Amino acid sequence: MKVLVTGGNGQLGRCLQDRLQYTDYEWQAPDQSNLDITDRSAIATYFKIFQPDIVINAAAYTAVDKAESDQENAYLVNATAPGYLAESCQTAAIPLIHISTDYVFDGTATVPYKVSDQTNPQSVYGSTKLVGEQIVQSTLSEHIIIRTAWVFSEYGNNFVKTMLRLANFHPVLKIVGDQYGCPTYAGDLADVILKMVMQVQFGQKLWGLYHYCGDQITSWHGFARAIFDEAKRQGIIDNIPQLRVINTDEYPVAAQRPQYSVLDCQLSFENYHVEIANWRKALTRVINKI
């Protein structure tokens, strides 16, 4: 079985590669320089040469604030490109696994979002990701869309790495405490995706929309506290910065974030024997690797 992973240099792409090397699959995970997914003809040519049996789209425009002033490129990567991938998958009669985000919701809920809940993105990033979902759904019947949230890993740029870097220079840090979500280790998400690939390979029809995130709700302040506690325990930092809780309106950014973006994952995966991962255990492993 041939697996094509787009966005090979991203957090999820790197974690998928780490796991694919221990499988029997033939796989490729090109970065943008090797496969420009915003180029329809480039995708068609790549498909013709590699002839994948399934595609995992882990590529995305994730610069949330920059997207507010770079709408054209955000739309191209998050909406147009998934459509091109879906078209080529439709032509080749193969499935597509596409990764989306909690930012498709407005964050006004008080209970975890189900896949059936009304979307209402409040940012360019969220809006373009939602359009990407819709294009994939309308183009290709054999699709799996997985919304996730607060992704971290040992790779790329993410909240964990930012906090560890800031700890070296700032004795006091102001962290938002009124936004709530569930941190998700990209490696755990990669495990789930490959488990679904295996199930698809053996004939299970898993098509549709899913939610997957970490198992425990926290705030950014709570996440930062967990990061520093673990880093101190492992001897990565000598002293834990003093953490001050601030509200969202005290930390102005270009793009509006969902204040509550907890995803209901249990209903999504209860039929496929996928367990929601403990992000605190994953955090221990990630900090050790960093």
From TrEMBL:
CC cofactor note: Binds 1 Mg(2+) ion per monomer.
One GO CC term, this protein: cytosol
GO MF terms, alphabetically ordered: dTDP-4-dehydrorhamnose reductase activity
Catalytic activity: dTDP-beta-L-rhamnose + NADP(+) = dTDP-4-dehydro-beta-L-rhamnose + NADPH + H(+)
Gene3D superfamilies: NAD(P)-binding Rossmann-like Domain (3.40.50.720), UDP-galactose 4-epimerase, domain 1 (3.90.25.10)
Cofactor(s) it depends on: Mg(2+)
Domain RmlD-like substrate binding: 1-289
EC number(s) recorded for this UniProt protein: 1.1.1.133
InterPro entries tied to this protein: dTDP_dehydrorham_reduct, NAD(P)-bd_dom_sf, RmlD-like-bd
Record key words, sorted: NADP, Oxidoreductase
GO biological process: dTDP-rhamnose biosynthetic process; O antigen biosynthetic process
Oxidoreductase is among the record's keywords: yes
Pathway given in the UniProt record: Carbohydrate biosynthesis; dTDP-L-rhamnose biosynthesis
Superkingdom of the source species: Bacteria
NCBIfam families: rmlD
General function of this protein: Catalyzes the reduction of dTDP-6-deoxy-L-lyxo-4-hexulose to yield dTDP-L-rhamnose.
Recorded family membership: Belongs to the dTDP-4-dehydrorhamnose reductase family.
Protein name stated in the entry: dTDP-4-dehydrorhamnose reductase
Species in which this protein is naturally found: Celerinatantimonas diazotrophica
